[in-house]
Amino acid sequence: METTNLFDRPVAVTIEEEIKKSYLDYAMSVIIGRALPDVRDGLKPVHRRILYGMYIGGNHWNRPYKKSARIVGDVMGKFHPHGDAAIYDTIVRLAQDFSMRHPLVDGQGNFGSIDGDAAAAMRYTEIRLAKLAHFMAADIEKDTVDFVPNYDGEETEPTVLPAMFPNLLVNGSSGIAVGMATNIPPHNLGEVAGAVIAAIERPEITTAELMRHMPGPDFPTAGIILGREGIRQAYETGRGLIKLRARAHVEEYRKDREAIVITEVPYQTNKANLIEKIAGLVKEKKVAGITDIRDESNREGIRIVLELARGEISDIVLKQLYKHTEMEATFGVQLLAIAGNQPKTFTLKEIIEAFIAYRKEVVLRRTRYDLERAKERAHILEGLTVALDNLDAVIALIRAAKDPDAAREGLMSRFSLSEAQAKAILEMRLQRLTGLERDKILSEYREVLARIQDLTEILQSEARVKTIICAEMRQIKADFSNPRRTQIVDDTGDISIEELIADEEMLLTVTHGGYIKRTALAEYRSQQRGGKGRAGMSPREDDFLEHLFVASNHDRFLFFSNQGKVYSLKVYELPEAGASARGRALVNLLSLDPGEKILGLLSARHCFDDSHFLMLATNNGIVKKTPMSEFDSIRANGKIAMTFKEGDELVGAGITDGKSHVFMALREGHCITFHEEDVRPSGRTSQGVIGIRLKGRDQVVEMEILSGSVVESFDEEGASKAVAQEGDILTVTENGYGKRTPLSHYRIQGRAGSGIINIQLTAKNGKVVGGLYVREDDEIVVITAKGQLIRTPVKGISEVGRRTQGFKVISLENGDKVVSIAKHLAEEEAAQPLEG
Amino acid sequence: MDKILSNNEIRTIITALGAGTSQEDINLEKLRYHKAIIMTDADVDGSHIRTLLLTLFYRHFPQLVERGHVYVAQPPLYRVSKGKEEHYISTEEDLTRFFVEKAVASYTVTIPSLKKTIRGLELSRALETLQRYERLLARLARKGYTEALLLNLFGAGLSREIFSGAEKIGALKHSVEQAGFECGELRFDEEHSLYEFTAKSEANPHPALIAHSLHHAPEFLTAQALHEKLKDLDRPPFVVANGESEAKAQDRRALLDLLLDSVKAKYHIQRYKGLGEMNPEQLWETTMDPAKRRLLQVRVDDAVEAGGLFSVLMGDAVEPRRKFIEENALNVTNLDI
Q1: In this complex, which of B58, B90, B318 lies closest to A15 when CB atoms are compared?
Q2: What angle is formed at CA A572 by the lines to CA A567 and CA A576, rounded to 5 degrees?
Q3: Are A109 and A91 in contact (CB under 8 A)?
Q4: Helix-strand-coil percent breakdown of chain A, rounded to 5?
Q5: Any idea of the CA torsion for A355, A359, A360, A363, to the nearest 10 degrees?
Q6: Is A278:A328 a contact under the CB 8 Å cutoff?
Q7: Chain A residues within 8 A of B321 when measuring between CB atoms
Q8: Chain A closest CA to B48's CA: distance in Å?
């Protein structure tokens, strides 16, 4: 950008050009110079500057600590012209033993905690380099790495540290640059050293073979890694997902209760947040069974105690915690690092190779430097030997010289010495002339010659260089490695809660008021044998037992709401309670919309396939049949089971086997029975077809599925079909009238007709409120508008023909009306599975 | 928009402009200032903030950009001082030019093998050419074309003819290999019916494509031309003298270092990273004084390209951004670590 116009006459620049340039400057600077580590030493510039600053500042592991603020100021002023907070935060992280597998800074004071507490301010804390950190900078004075001027040209700084161990793998790294990010997990030093040595010895080594040395990451916070596939993928491609879990065990307390005790959390998980999250889940009832949460962690280690309610299965609670909290976390590996001023995604082998190549370079440069020094020394020693051999002549020459310069020149010309040699002779102390000292010089000379020989050989032999690198790796391993912390286990797949729960037979009860519970059948039966009257539940005055099922824990329950939605719960998800308990309200188990009511429920197990169907019926006579397979994946938050026209509501639901009959009763006394084949299966959200044609404002009040119980037969004329089977249709009307009519009286018709007469209606008996398929031994409950519940056995209601008006079944108070009827289930029936 | 307005700085900018809060209700009549000058620190974080502000103006007040109301301030990058003497310098090129002038003022360069002494204007031209050449070499080297390789190619006198016959290009490849390069297989580019191959060496493992397109590349041609001009400086050693003392330089780079370093050492160079490094008077003098300041006026040349660029750089999708960075990584001019 040449500028000739100085007086506020602007040069034009296009926005494209300007933004491109500015953005690239920024992006590349962040990528190369800020957020990503160098593949060779695993350090970002800020880390390198801190370590180098501390190293040259003499802040060594065996020296006293220095105030952090001093180091921060030093590093900032000399090398890193950025914020002091950023520098201090970096130092703090380098010192945290829960962030770094091998901390590079040794901190004195409060450096924060795994709860996310901040470190004390930098004016309080003190630091020095950790012992291992010296091996990051070792040999740096031997011209092993390139130096560049710092930001103001006053100092020079290394572009990379000599790094005697693969810090990138040992301590990992994470950083977000622009358009790319890195996330490298920490590893076990001993294992990494083993892998490096193996790769030096066999350059063609495979990832699988490397993994025999280093099976996976090793986090400072320990924990458990689930599965090896993610690790293998990360190592082979540079990207992979590693599943990481907290370590928890179960302890018993107060004799009969269990507590989950968490002793290790996944890497980078904030313990305080984790506990808060668990508490939140308990509060929202997303995880049940935890009665108390205590953090008993102390300086010794982590200990989070979750007390469970009696009878809670700890495995299930744990499973839920893994699912909903950071007790299980995923570490997304991204092996991205800078090499040759460019970002690159590495494989594990490439990282190790890059490290080895770099170490070779460092060792060669160090050897060359040592060789130079050795040669210089040999040169001086040669000079000294010459002087000692000609001691008297040398002394005479010096004594005769008029000044040091003359002495030097005399020595140089007389004994053909170099300037450096002559200088060394002149600076020699007299005591070196003693016999012993002379021997020393000679033996040193021999040593230096041997050393030169050795160093020269190293420079010429790649094998020697490799041996040196291996030896240094072994030394570091021996001095600094410690046992693996993170355990790697096979991922047994997603163990479903179901597998942890015995598929026991349960007795399920649902009351008319919507309370549900399950009781182990075994418990129920043993109580029955106790013989003291009925051990059944004692519902409230205004409630009664409406549904009773025997189902296994693994069975599924479908709940249908008046809004056409279907909800599903596994039996084991229902509250378990004793025989006399009422259970919990359904509205607390399902996420219902306001105004939504559960109208029906079904238990089902092995019928979520295409040969079973869900039959739904609405007020307006619509029926819909949908293969059960479509309801296989319904959860407690519900799915649409049927779409209604406005003003319509669900009145009944049932499962059919493809061979059942559907019975529908109308308010105005008609009814219909048709074969389910008349209804074509349709999708979950479809509207359905007409089941029975209604006249005027008539409504369907009941739908029953007649399965198995129906046998088709022919009447005398041999043409029209009728139903011949045991059992009756029991019909009850508003004014308390009712009757039973044998099923055989109900002819099977086609769908969508207006049906046949079910009951003769008069002013006396009123409209129909319900029509149930009953057997001789059943009991029914009649519910009135004023909340009266009247239980009556079916036997007590006379069996008559269809075209009758029925008999008074119950006497109502003045103005009261029957609103619905339901089967009351005798608990003895529980012995036989009922439905599904 | 609410999110934007929740940022205090942006609210201040919008209030100061006084022309409305978005491109829909903007009223340029009411604009209170006709120069909205973006003045950020001279480091890369400053660059970042500049891109963010440009995005704000471009996306929300495009009229301001179209009418040329948006400017970028050009604070100096360096302050060079020696005793009471001080200079503000705005680019790296200007900085070296400054030192070249200082060097030329006090030194002469003698080339003993040619018995030639260069001084004054001639020296300053030679040094500038040399510097341009060195910079170009550095850029080419990043793409794999090391100086050694380039010298080979300069000598070969590239032409279309060489690339069109298997025999001729074979000879070129052979000579490159003779010079110690590892060459890839000959490839035939069917579209142009021309041959090409790659060459790499230990010093530069990034393989460089040697093809007809190289012979046309401005960088290559310029480097070749500059190399031609520098013939005299191909004959080291050089003797640098300033009347009192003499020093020897073994090659061109050493010559450059020797001349410039000796001058540089006498000055104190401050590289500005933040505006906060300047005293108020200095800031006024160098950057804000309408009589002296230098501004860049932001214009939209190609609205489609600009729109696309903003989407890539500031949008939600990471992948295109990464691609853009990868494609343009080599064009970066100002790396700040």
Answers
A1: B58
A2: 110
A3: no
A4: 35, 25, 40
A5: 180
A6: no
A7: 178-179
A8: 6
CB contact under 8 A, A179 and B269: no
Query: Mind telling me how many Å the CA of A93 is from chain B's nearest CA?
Result: 21
* 3-class secondary structure, B199: strand
Q: Of all helices (H) and strands (E), which one includes residue B313?
A: helix B303-314
For an interface test with B, give the residue of A5, A6, A16 to mutate (most B CBs within 10 A). Answer: A16
- Note the ipTM here: 0.73
CB contact under 8 A, B322 and A12: no
CA separation for the pair B61, B33 (Å, rounded): 14
A with B: how many residue pairs have Cβ under 8 Å apart?
135
3 state DSSP class of A135 = helix
B336: nearest CB among A1, A29, A153: A29
Q: What is the DSSP string of A266-326?
A: -TT--HHHHHHHHHHHHHTTSS-SEEEEEE--BTTB--EEEEE-TT--HHHHHHHHHHHST
Residue position matching structure tokens 């703090």: A92
Q: Is the pTM of this model over 0.90?
A: no
pLDDT by residue, tens only, chain B of 337 residues: 677 778 888 889 888 888 887 777 788 888 898 889 999 887 888 889 999 999 988 888 888 888 889 999 888 888 888 888 888 888 777 888 888 888 888 888 888 777 788 888 888 888 888 888 888 887 777 777 878 788 778 877 777 777 887 788 888 888 888 877 888 888 887 777 788 888 877 666 667 788 877 777 777 888 888 888 877 777 777 888 877 778 888 887 788 888 887 788 888 888 787 788 888 988 888 888 888 888 888 888 888 888 888 888 888 888 888 888 877 776 666 666 5
Task: Report yes or no: A253 at the B interface, CB cutoff 8 Å.
Answer: no
Q: How far apart are CA A175 and CA A177, in angstroms?
A: 6
DSSP for residue A527: H
Q: Which residues of A are catalytic?
A: 124
Q: Is A430 on the interface with B (CB under 8 A)?
A: no
If you measure CA to CA, which chain A residue comes closest to B322?
A179
The alpha-carbon gap from A181 to the nearest alpha carbon of chain B, in Å, equals: 10
DSSP A65-77: -EEHHHHHHHHHH
